[in-house]
Write a structure and sequence with these properties.
Elements lengths: L5 E8 L4 E8 L4 E5 L5 H11 L2 E6 L11 H8 L2 E5 L3 H5 L1 H8 L11 E3 L4 E4 L2 E7 L8 E5 L4 E5 L2 E2 L2 E2 L9 H12 L7 E4 L5 E2 H7 L6
Parallel strand pairs: 3-4, 4-5, 5-6, 10-13
Antiparallel strand pairs: 1-2, 2-3, 7-8, 8-9, 9-10, 11-12, 13-14
C-alpha cells in the first residue's frame, strides 16, 4: 500500500506470524517499525532493499510475539523503543511469556519512550497519532494515519474478531469500549492492518463483526 508520501509494508514475522508493519516517508526515507515480533534478519534485509532508516520502533502492546525482535532491531538500527507504560509489566515478563508458550527467549532492553493517548507520530511529511485502546492488554495502542485512511490496530481488532482478553490484564468490557468509542467512530473507509491475519476496514467490522457491535 502506497500513499502519496507513505510507504507501507506489512510482513508476518515470528512464531505466531505477527504482522510487523514498516511505515516510511518517501521523501526523507525515515521509517517507523511497528511490532517486530521476530525474524529480525528478514526485516533488516527489507529495510536495506527499501533504502530507509528506522528511527522509531513502536509497539501496539507487549505480548512476546509483538516484540521478540525489538532488542536486535534496536541494536542494529539504533532506533528508540516506544510502548505504553501500562504494558511495562508484560515487557518485563518476556522470559516468562516465552517459557509458557515454549518459545526461545530473546532479551530486549527496556523501552526508551512511553507512548501517550493522542500523541503525534511524526514521519516528516507523514503525520499520525497514537490511540490508547485498552482491553487486549492494559496498554494496548492503535496507530492512526487519518490522511492516508490507515489504522494499525495490533491485536485490538481483527477481521471478524477481536483480541483475546483471557491473558494477563485482558478485559472484555475495556476492549469493547475501546473499539466502540475510539475505532468505530473513525471513517468507515479506513483500512485496518491487524496484528495477525488479513487486513480489513472500519466499515466492514462495524457491519460484520459479531464480537463488538457498532
Amino acid at each position: 500500500m502506497n500513499g502519496s508520501n507513505l510507504i507501507v509494508e506489512t510482513i508476518p514475522v515470528g512464531p505466531l506470524k505477527c504482522n510487523c508493519t514498516i511505515l516510511a516517508d518517501r521523501v526523507s526515507r525515515k521509517a517507523i517499525l511497528i511490532d517486530p515480533g521476530g525474524d529480525a534478519e528478514i526485516l533488516l534485509e527489507r529495510l536495506v532493499k527499501l533504502d530507509i532508516q528506522v528511527d522509531k520502533i513502536i509497539h501496539t502492546h507487549a505480548h512476546f510475539d509483538h516484540f521478540l525482535a525489538s532488542g536486535k532491531m534496536k541494536k542494529v538500527t539504533g532506533a528508540k523503543l516506544a510502548l505504553h507504560r501500562e504494558d511495562l509489566f508484560l515487557w518485563d515478563m518476556l522470559e516468562d511469556q516465552c517459557q509458557i508458550f515454549g518459545i526461545p527467549f530473546e532479551p530486549s532492553p527496556p523501552p526508551d519512550h512511553w507512548l501517550e493517548h493522542e500523541e503525534e507520530i511524526d514521519l516528516n511529511q507523514v503525520k499520525g497519532k497514537a490511540l490508547h485502546t485498552p482491553g487486549h492488554t492494559p496498554g494496548s495502542m492503535c496507530f492512526l494515519f487519518e490522511s492516508h485512511k490507515l489504522l494499525i490496530a495490533g491485536d485490538t481488532l481483527f477481521q471478524g474478531s477481536i483480541g483475546r482478553t483471557d491473558l494477563w490484564g485482558g478485559d472484555f468490557k475495556k476492549i469493547e469500549k475501546s473499539i466502540q468509542e475510539k475505532l468505530y467512530t473513525l471513517d468507515e473507509e479506513i483500512s485496518v492492518i491487524t496484528g495477525h491475519g488479513d487486513s480489513t476496514s472500519i466499515g466492514r467490522e462495524m457491519r460484520e463483526n459479531s464480537f463488538v457491535r457498532a
